Amino acid sequence: MGDKVYYITTPIYYVNDAPHIGHFSTTVAADVLARFQRLRGREVLFATGTDEHAPKVAEAARQRGKEPQQFVDEIVQTYLQTWQETHIDYDDFVRTSEPRHKAVVTAAFERLRERGDIYRGIYEGWYCVPDETFWQESELIEGRCPNPECRRPVQKVQEENWFFRLSAYQDRLLEYYEAHPEVLQPDFRRNEVLSFIRSGLRDASITRSAYGWGIPVPDDPSKVIYVWFDALLNYITVAGYLQDEAKLRDVWPADVHLMAKDIFVRFHATLWPAILMGLELPLPRRLFAHGFWTVDGEKISKSKGNAINPRQLAAEVAERSGSSYDVVVDALRFFIFREVPFGLDGDFSTTGFVHRFNSDLANDLGNLVNRSISMLHRYYEGVVPAATPDPALVALAEPLVRDLPAALEELRFHQALDLIWGFISALNKYVDEQAPWRLAREERREELARVMYSVLDGVRLVAVAISPFMPVAAGEIWRQLGMPTPLAAQRWDEAMRPGGLPAATVTATAEPIFRRIEEKRRPAKEKPVAETTPAPAEKPAEPAQPTITFDEFQRLDLRVARIEAAERIPGANKLLKLTVNTGTDTRTVVAGIALWYAPEELVGRKVVLVCNLAPAKIRGVESQGMLLAADTEGRAVLLQPEQDVPVGSKVR
Ligand code: MSP
């Protein structure tokens, strides 16, 4: 067998509820890492799944008058659908109610009982149902669950149970973590684990009186196995434990178990490794706990109804922006890592998301892609010229190429995105400084070829680099670039080498990928209204207008004009203020084209102007005339003379 398979897991989620932004963030993190490892050429096993035997799941089923199995079979669909519709490309989805898993749990229980690691005793203490956790009286805070993310009332429990001899593993666990400090991540969480273990481990109750759901204790049907003992074992079920020894050897130990901090210390960093020691299996290489999301400053809670459903949010934002649903999903995948260093707590707000969407995606990335491909069409009919990349730009790509792998490998996603956006800004600045429109005007063909090649090759690097985060958007950039080999077939080392864009590549027409969202909230159903550009063309094409006479047409004063200067209008994201030379005068025109044209690329361009349109004040600026533009799928494409003609030429 070849290299070890890179094995990544998420927690398996309780199926009493639909997945929200918290579950989404862990699963996306795992997906980003999985995609990155595949890009590096590693074989990956990325597993997620559902934890179905919890008492609270049984309770939720009962409340709906359903059998637990029927209930979980229904709810699991929401998870499957959510992951599918948020571009989660897992390799295995494990359900704890599956026979393959039940067999592993039963066998592991028996094995540990034979070794004397599981024994019968009386449990007296407290149980937190939402957390499915046993607590000692002394651990409670004001009589409630001491987990800071929970703090809900607990139930008194007194029952005969089976115990796992956790106390016997205290020293071995401490020794292990002392020898392998890198297992507990991020670093700042390590001490919490060590002090929890040092404070003394008590044996853990790992069964409950049967409640009509769950895996029965072998030879003791009055009990079912505690949901956490059951759930943790999913990680070896997926790895082939007891079913496929060769697979187990290739896959185990897990390279990363990902989760939030709520289930890190007690369960993943203490109980789980102790169980593995008892089963004589190697311990996971990394346990990574990220922070908790709040929404608009508040804890996510069912009673508040503030749990953000990622699919619903993406659908709403897509409707507001005009970008495709899949692109907005990608934007959401990007957003959860963009602002908050992965590992720390973060606050989610739709306003924050929209703001980032507009600034980082519509503006920085979207504009870069759109203007570079548009310029290629303008200057090279869309075909990539042969040139070598500008060494200045290669140097700017270096931090990205060099540091991105380690940032992703170590789950420093925030830093990874900083590196990528640093390069995007550098590319935009390069375009502004090199001003290809000027090189074209001055007929400096060689320089123009080098600049255009370098920028488009930079866009190609960006597409590869963002692909683990935004697979659909990256694929769309790849398509527009006209790359001959599929993005999915790329390998990091080769793909991230500058100069990999083949000369003579035929690019597709530039189409905006990220369409700016109005920042003030509109009712979800209302379509944003364009400010000066005509409303997007309906399909099929609008019915023809009533005819006009030739004389009426003659009343239009259409002329070729040249744009002398262009600037944005603060506070109006769709508008540009243009200074236009009509051949007889120089005037100001406000045009609603800022989403598709950067001011710099317009200067020097010849356009068709309606000169005798009555002046109008738009956002406080007097506009004297209107540029003619084709309106295609809501996007404006400026009309320009097919050959060079003098400024002031009449258009008839
Ligand atoms: N079923 C157990 C896990 C068993 S793993 C062997 C469980 N399930 S859960 O549905 O409650 O999911 C917990 C996980 O969901 C957290 O560890 C985290 O990955 C994610 N999150 C749930 N709420 C979250 C936030 N508010 N913020 C961030 N992540 C959160 O526990």
Describe the fold and architecture:
The protein has 652 residues and is α/β, with parallel strands linked by helices. The chain has three domains: 6-291, HUPs (Rossmann fold, 3-Layer(aba) Sandwich), CATH 3.40.50; 313-495, Isoleucyl-tRNA Synthetase, Domain 1 (Orthogonal Bundle); 550-638, Nucleic acid-binding proteins (OB fold (Dihydrolipoamide Acetyltransferase, E2P), Beta Barrel), CATH 2.40.50.140. Helices cover 41% and strands 19% of the residues. A six-stranded parallel sheet has the order 3-2-1-12-13-7, sandwiched between helices. The chain has a five-stranded antiparallel sheet with strand order 19-18-17-20-23. A hairpin with a 2-residue loop joins strand 21 (616-618) and strand 22 (621-623). Helix 15 runs antiparallel to helix 17. The longest helix is centred in the middle third of the chain and has 31 residues, at 350-380. Residues 521-543 have low confidence and may be disordered. Bound molecules: 5'-O-[(L-methionyl)-sulphamoyl]adenosine. 5'-O-[(L-methionyl)-sulphamoyl]adenosine is lined by residues 11-14, 22-23, 25-26, 51, 231-232, 234, 259-260, 262-263, 292-293, 300.
